[in-house]
Amino acid sequence: MTAVRPGPAFSVHDIPFSTYGSWFGISPVVAEKTYADDLHLVSHQNGMHAVLRLTPLDPATGDRAETRVEATPALLSWVGTGGRIDLAYATPDTVRLRGSGLGVRVAAAAPALTPFSGTYFFRDPAADAHVFTSYETGRRHRVTVVSGTLAGTTGAEALGSADRGLVLTAAPGGVWEIAIEELDTARPPFAASASFDEVVEAARISFADFADRVAPWRSSATPAAELAAYVLWSATVRPTGLVTRPAVLMSKHWMDKVWSWDHCFNALALASGCPDLAMDQFALPFDHQDASGALPDSVTHSEVLHNFVKPPIHGWAFGLLRRRLPTPPDEAELTRTYGRLARWTTFWLTARRAPGSELAHYQHGNDSGWDNATPFDPERVVETADLAAFLVLQLHELADLAHELRRPDERRRWLRIAEGIRTALLAELWDGDRFVTRSVATGDTWSSASLLDLMPVVLGEHLPGEVSSALADRIKAHLTPYGLATELTASPHYLADGYWRGPVWAPATVLVEDGLRRAGHHRLADEISARFRVLCETHGFAENFDAATGTGLRDRAYTWTAAGYLLLAEAHAHREGRR
């Protein structure tokens, strides 16, 4: 059997086993915070759906065999005392399984079949294969026996509730192999074009090439870089449905969408090594920009949501992205992005400014990306300092782009608006000690113990020195041994697993670190970077982390966390190299 190939080992309880371009993964995570005993083929077309259950079997008894699961980027294995089963991706829509000493049962995950849900199972005589066709995904999964013995099937053509599946075994000392393909309606019968070992080696090389491009600077001082690269690589899907470009989903667990600020961090992490993929990440939500100029809240295979927006960090992100790309975008790309950023900014300046107000507002915490942060407790339709800061940075990026595109009048206009917002931010939301939040309806103001109140530090060099210093001092109070708590740990509203009311998050970390560094607070920026890097190296790439213990919370394989680690680790490696 195939030996485990070099590469970062990981637990499939935390990170799904998948490959670049695929819309499915192999994982015990079958729904939000729901873990099955067996690994499942989990599809992300039309949502997250466990389609097939994969169960290792004792060939002597037919019972479920006790195994341990091992995973590296190219190979997933069930290892038992009597044998093993290996699984590898041959293509983004096809996996190969090979076993010796153990059998396998491939079964429909859901026993019930109705006219609107479940999985129908039948033998396809034209392809000499068995097919599971899923209502939830709208796709078929075809199982072809490459070698070995089809020991039996159950539930073929059954309706209603039934146990649907097939069992593969081999003679003692023999080897069985199957292929499972995800397809639409039909394709020619499966024919192996490479041996199983060749499939594994090709997958290993594919990931190794990606890691070398994304993190060529990695070393023993950045021990999580390769696994971070795997999280990004394995969460990438090919264009399908409403996903118009190759896309890095936030996760191949239940957070299987592209949200319209998360994508910026993935684009930045990919920029130097995979520039085309990086530009696709930045552009994807703009492909769904509406007539008002607003970006969608999220995009995934079969839905685009517009019920909320996300914060306008895109000017900040594109400015940094341009500097990270090995070749600057050409004039056509700059013109296209300029137009999209201008429409996005105009949305905030028109649809999100109350009459007579210089400052834009959010309509809900979800618009900020900090869904339930405490500044939104008193009211939801509010003017916040972070939003003003992001718009100032976006307006400055528009001014820079207008200059490059030889549009001096537009440059002057953007700079004038930026200065007006910056002046209003400092005059109306800075109370001399801290930034406050203001009700659009009443004009009442309040402060909180949330890190969100300190996010104007992203303005960096655009802030008066005394303001950035005051923000830096307050940021220090949020710094736990594991990073920046999004709510002060002493706050009565702090919750260990409270989403944006306490846990450490990657995007806030990256934005704060960058703003502090640009404002000259290098020592504090270094400390924030170091603590977050150690957090990821110790606890992985969860959606967020308990600020008091470092424990990973919620979705445990989140790409913007991996991207944040790669950005901070790369910058640290380069700083160390210059010393």
Instruction: Give the integer mean of the pLDDT values.
Output: 96
Report how far apart the termini are.
47 Å
Any low-confidence stretches, pLDDT <50, length ≥5?
1-5
Shape: elongated
- Sheet/helix structural class: alpha+beta
Number of helices: 13
- Strand residue percentage: 15-25%
Report the major sheet: 8 strands, antiparallel
Could you please describe the fold and organization of this structure?
Helix content is 32%, strand content 22%. It is an alpha+beta fold and 579 residues long. Strands 4-5-6-7-16-12-11-10 form an eight-stranded antiparallel sheet, with helices on one face. A hairpin with a 4-residue loop joins strand 5 (75-79) and strand 6. Mean pLDDT is 96; it is low at 1-5.
Topology of helices and strands:
Blueprint: E1 24-31, E2 34-43, E3 49-57, E4 68-72, E5 75-79, E6 84-91, E7 94-100, E8 103-108, E9 112-113, E10 119-124, E11 129-134, E12 140-147, E13 149-154, E14 160-161, E15 165-169, E16 176-183, H1 196-214, H2 225-234, E17 236-237, E18 247-248, E19 258-259, H3 262-270, H4 275-283, E20 298-300, E21 303-305, H5 314-324, H6 331-350, H7 365-368, E22 382-383, H8 385-404, H9 408-429, E23 437-439, E24 445-446, H10 465-477, E25 479-480, E26 483-484, H11 506-518, H12 522-539, E27 544-545, E28 552-553, H13 559-578
Antiparallel strand pairs: 1-2, 2-3, 3-8, 4-5, 5-6, 6-7, 7-16, 8-15, 9-14, 10-11, 11-12, 12-16, 13-15, 17-18, 19-20, 20-21, 22-23, 23-24, 25-26, 27-28
Helix pairs in contact: 1-2, 2-13, 3-4, 3-5, 3-13, 5-8, 6-8, 8-9, 11-12, 11-13, 12-13
